[in-house]
Write a structure and sequence with these properties.
It is built from 3 helices and 13 strands; from the N terminus they run E-E-H-E-E-E-H-H-E-E-E-E-E-E-E-E. It starts with 18 loop residues before the first strand and ends with a strand. With 216 residues, it is α+β, with helices and mostly antiparallel strands.
Length: 216
């Protein structure tokens, strides 16, 4: 078998993949295929051990409740030391997610100028009952992009990304199961209410995502 050729950050992403844009109840878009299948397979084969992740959990208080595991890869625009311990594909990926071409793609998708100067990029893992309550992101964030890695993940497994019309929760305006090659990108606003429904997978499977946060 011929090995998969090394891809530079300029060619790693398929920035011509289909994008379905929405303006209701705020500006958000679904993009399918941004990570090509060979890249997805390589990432799945190089997932970091969960003991590298930090458990983040808050039942009440603040702007939202949440439960998940997080492994930061980029903080404040700078690479985290943990990248030296991971397969090189992860450094290639975070480089690709800070290129001018990718930033232009985000800007076109959500109609907001963005920069990678203070970018935060991390891996987020959700197990059974992990979730994020309905909220809007903090002022200063320009846009977020959530990229799903799971090959098979149906609606009954929970963990869907929910688009809401208000902070009261209730029935979502839209629901996106977290299954690759899907991703969702949205502009931050006072009305960009969203949530992650509790994970219901009962076979020990974990919900894996890459999250890109672009700050002013």
């Amino acid at each position: 078998m011929t090995p998969e050729p090394h891809r530079t950050e300029e060619t790693m992403l398929d920035l011509d993949a289909p994008v379905t844009a929405h303006r209701t109840p705020y500006i958000w878009a679904q993009a399918d295929g941004l990570l090509p299948l060979p890249l997805l397979e390589r990432l799945r084969g190089a997932l970091p051990a969960t003991d590298l992740f930090d458990r983040k959990e808050r039942a009440a208080g603040g702007d939202k409740a949440y439960a998940m595991q997080v492994l930061p890869l980029v903080r404040g625009g700078a690479d985290c030391a943990v990248l030296d311990r991971l397969d090189p594909v992860w450094r290639d990926l975070v480089d690709a997610l800070r290129t001018p071409a990718y930033l232009d793609w985000v800007q076109r998708a959500v109609e907001v100028p963005v920069t990678a100067r203070h970018a935060e990029i991390g891996l987020f893992v959700f197990g059974t009952d992990d979730h994020v309550s309905c909220h809007t992101d903090k002022s200063g964030k320009l846009a977020s992009h959530v990229i799903y890695l799971n090959e098979a993940w149906g609606p009954d497994d929970g963990g869907a990304f929910e688009v809401h019309t208000s902070g009261s929760g209730g029935t979502p305006h839209a629901t996106l199961p977290p299954e690759a090659p899907r991703s969702v990108v949205f502009a931050r606003s006072e009305h960009s209410w969203h949530a992650v429904e509790p994970v219901r997978a009962d076979d020990g499977r974990l919900r894996w995502t890459i999250q890109v946060e672009l700050w002013a």
